[in-house]
Each structure stands twice: as C-alpha cells, then as structure tokens.
Design a protein that fits this description.
heterodimer; A: globular; B: alpha+beta; two-stranded antiparallel sheet
C-alpha cells in the first residue's frame, strides 16, 4: 500500500515540551512539507 | 539528514517546511538535536501512531541487512559510530513530501536503514509540487 497521490494521514504528535501539534500544521498556505521519520536515535 | 540540514536554505526557497519525527524518549531527542544541530521542528511519536499511519514498519531482517551491517562495521572501524544500544533498532524510517494541498507526492518508506531518497530527488520533487513566488497558489 502506497500513500503516493493520496491525502497525507493526519496525526497529532507532540513537541519536545509535550505541546500537541497536528501534522497538518506544517503544510498548506503554499508550503509543502518534507517529513523525515527517523530510525532509532543512534 | 546531514544533507538536508546543509541545504536547509535551498529547501526554504522552495517554500517547504521540514519536520523530523522520532519515536524515542525526549531525552534521546535532546541528545540527537545537540549532535546534529538540526534546525527543524522535532516531533515525538512514542506510540508510533504516525509511523503506522505512514506505513513504516519494524523489521529485524531489514534493519540488519548485510548492507547495514557493513555500514556499521566500517563506521565503527573509522570511529564514527558507537554500537551501543539506543532505542529500538528495528524500527525503520522513511521520507515523505506532502504538497500544499495535503497530498503525498513522495513516499519512501525505508527498505533498510540506509535507504533514503537522494537530496536531488527531494529537491526535484519539492520544486515540482510547490508554487514559486511568481506562481499563483
């Protein structure tokens, strides 16, 4: 299953200070989003 | 990641935000941020809700592929990597580009830990999906 061409899943995550933020905050109003999922932080 | 950080100005000119997501405790996130000096927003996903929603899997077989093992051996030999345990080493990452309308235009779940799109591919996709300043929104 690929997400290519489909609406990006909307998920609410948190910043380091625990403030919740929807992922959709970072795209829209003419701006794209490069989303980088990390592996373990080694 | 280092290449993305090094080209952050170029990415900004393409009207793109960059966000990194990790699943580990905020302590390790702080360590990672200090080590990488990443200027981008950093989000935590301890339940891996976003990882699952974006189709990113955990796989011991793919996480420890021969290519990955060779990379870590070379890096350790060169003194670049510590092979100590830090988090779940089997969770794979991935890269996605979402256009201003919220549509996924690049979807690359990593097939192994070293599988990431090239910087050229990222910049090319961003230039195709994001209107420039002279283009209508």
């Amino acid at each position: 299953m690929t997400l290519l061409g489909k609406p990006a899943p909307e998920v609410t995550l948190s910043l380091l200070d625990a403030e919740p933020v929807p992922l959709s905050t970072y795209w829209g109003n003419g701006r794209s989003l490069l989303l980088i999922f990390l592996r373990h932080l080694a | 990641m280092a290449q993305v950080v090094a080209h952050s100005a170029e990415i900004e000119k393409l009207n793109a935000n960059v966000v990194t997501i990790a699943f580990e405790a905020s302590f390790w996130a702080g360590v990672w941020l200090q080590e990488t000096q990443s200027p981008f927003p950093f989000l935590l996903d301890p339940e891996r809700e976003a990882y699952h929603a974006y189709g990113l899997q955990a796989s011991a077989l793919r996480a420890w592929s021969p290519r990955t093992l060779w990379y870590y051996l070379k890096a350790a030999w060169q003194g670049r990597e510590r092979l100590g345990k830090r988090g779940d080493p089997h969770q794979l990452g991935g890269d996605f580009i979402i256009d201003p309308q919220g549509i996924v235009r690049l979807a690359q779940p990593s097939r192994d830990p070293l599988d990431r799109p090239s910087l050229d591919q990222i910049l090319t996709t961003l230039s195709q999906v994001t209107p420039g300043p002279e283009q209508p929104l």
